[in-house]
């Protein structure tokens, strides 16, 4: 199975695999900070938003569509009505788990009806303690920047793109309950891969049951690619292999720069 991208440093992905040190020096740039500004050559031919489709309506790197735009829209409005009814009259905080949730969160917020008595949104980013791990370790840490003091007494609904092992959400919901002292904590996930659970975890609201396949689109990525697709599908093996090779090349560039850096704090 292709590696999950949950534990990667995203700034690393902005580096051009073929950018050489000589190129950078020629531009008067040096050290680690410099190569962050280089625009990557993106092999995915789609930078045209929803126009990311071939003649058959599918992106060339996508093998099959699992959930179409229309199916996603229907699921989001069904969830919006269900959630709206359940949170009617309550003080609600809709907390997205970045980055995969971003499209779903934005669409869901617009679909929740009727409007809760108080309706706030926030986002958090969860990170694993294990560097370089390909799946979540379960030792999840909420990244700095999330305002845990804003959680107390509120009815928190955590918005997730896809539940796999269940480890990430087990940890996040536990933190929101104990540290955050939320009035309640529930979870809505767009996709649920029940077959892959490592711990017992049930979401309160589910868009779709998802087959045990690696999926991308509608916010969900493979190595930061494909988030922009308006539907959810499975990437081709050719695309997975190509992107994995590009990622590996970028890491090699990264190591070169780490060695060259003269900033000890970098
Ligand atoms: P878990 O439930 O702790 O294993 O973590 C779920 C996270 O793994 C999701 O939020 C995604 O970031 C990632 N993930 C799981 N399955 C997929 C997939 O099919 N495609 C892309 N990311 C996935
Ligand atoms: Mg996620």
Automatic annotation (TrEMBL):
<dbReference type="InterPro" id="IPR005904">
    <property type="entry name" value="Hxn_phspho_trans"/>
</dbReference>
<dbReference type="InterPro" id="IPR029057">
    <property type="entry name" value="PRTase-like"/>
</dbReference>
<protein>
    <recommendedName>
        <fullName>Hypoxanthine phosphoribosyltransferase</fullName>
        <ecNumber>2.4.2.8</ecNumber>
    </recommendedName>
</protein>
<dbReference type="GO" id="GO:0032264">
    <property type="term" value="P:IMP salvage"/>
</dbReference>
<keyword id="KW-0328">Glycosyltransferase</keyword>
<dbReference type="GO" id="GO:0006166">
    <property type="term" value="P:purine ribonucleoside salvage"/>
</dbReference>
<dbReference type="Pfam" id="PF00156">
    <property type="entry name" value="Pribosyltran"/>
</dbReference>
<dbReference type="GO" id="GO:0005829">
    <property type="term" value="C:cytosol"/>
</dbReference>
<dbReference type="InterPro" id="IPR000836">
    <property type="entry name" value="PRTase_dom"/>
</dbReference>
<keyword id="KW-0660">Purine salvage</keyword>
<dbReference type="GO" id="GO:0032263">
    <property type="term" value="P:GMP salvage"/>
</dbReference>
<dbReference type="GO" id="GO:0046100">
    <property type="term" value="P:hypoxanthine metabolic process"/>
</dbReference>
<keyword id="KW-0808">Transferase</keyword>
<dbReference type="GO" id="GO:0004422">
    <property type="term" value="F:hypoxanthine phosphoribosyltransferase activity"/>
</dbReference>
<dbReference type="GO" id="GO:0006178">
    <property type="term" value="P:guanine salvage"/>
</dbReference>
<dbReference type="GO" id="GO:0000287">
    <property type="term" value="F:magnesium ion binding"/>
</dbReference>
<feature type="domain" description="Phosphoribosyltransferase">
    <location>
        <begin position="70"/>
        <end position="222"/>
    </location>
</feature>
<keyword id="KW-0963">Cytoplasm</keyword>
<keyword id="KW-0547">Nucleotide-binding</keyword>
<dbReference type="GO" id="GO:0000166">
    <property type="term" value="F:nucleotide binding"/>
</dbReference>
<comment type="similarity">
    <text>Belongs to the purine/pyrimidine phosphoribosyltransferase family.</text>
</comment>
<keyword id="KW-0460">Magnesium</keyword>
<keyword id="KW-0479">Metal-binding</keyword>
<dbReference type="InterPro" id="IPR050408">
    <property type="entry name" value="HGPRT"/>
</dbReference>
<comment type="pathway">
    <text>Purine metabolism; IMP biosynthesis via salvage pathway; IMP from hypoxanthine: step 1/1.</text>
</comment>
């Amino acid at each position: 199975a292709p590696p999950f991208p949950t534990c990667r440093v995203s700034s690393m992905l902005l580096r051009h695999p073929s950018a050489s040190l000589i190129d950078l020096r020629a531009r008067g740039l040096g050290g680690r900070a410099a190569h962050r500004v280089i625009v990557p050559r993106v092999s995915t031919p789609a930078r045209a938003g929803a126009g990311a489709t071939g003649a058959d309506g599918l992106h060339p790197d996508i093998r099959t569509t699992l959930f179409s735009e229309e199916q996603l829209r229907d699921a989001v409005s069904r969830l919006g009505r269900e959630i709206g009814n359940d949170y009617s009259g309550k003080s609600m905080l809709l907390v997205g788990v970045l980055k995969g949730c971003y499209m779903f969160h934005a669409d869901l917020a617009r679909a929740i009806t009727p409007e809760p008595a108080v309706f706030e949104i926030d986002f958090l980013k969860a990170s694993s303690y294990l560097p370089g791990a390909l799946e979540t370790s379960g030792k999840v840490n909420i990244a700095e920047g999330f305002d845990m003091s804003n959680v107390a007494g509120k009815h928190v609904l955590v918005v997730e793109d896809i539940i796999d092992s269940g480890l990430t959400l087990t940890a996040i919901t536990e933190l929101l309950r104990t540290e955050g002292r939320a009035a309640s904590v529930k979870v809505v996930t767009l996709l649920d891969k029940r077959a892959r659970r490592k711990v017992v975890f049930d979401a309160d609201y589910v868009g779709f049951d998802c087959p045990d396949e690696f999926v991308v689109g509608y916010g969900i990525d493979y190595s930061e690619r494909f988030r922009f697709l308006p539907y959810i599908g499975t990437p081709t093996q050719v695309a997975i292999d190509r992107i994995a090779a590009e990622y590996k090349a970028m890491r090699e560039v990264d190591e070169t720069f780490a060695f060259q850096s003269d900033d000890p704090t970098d």
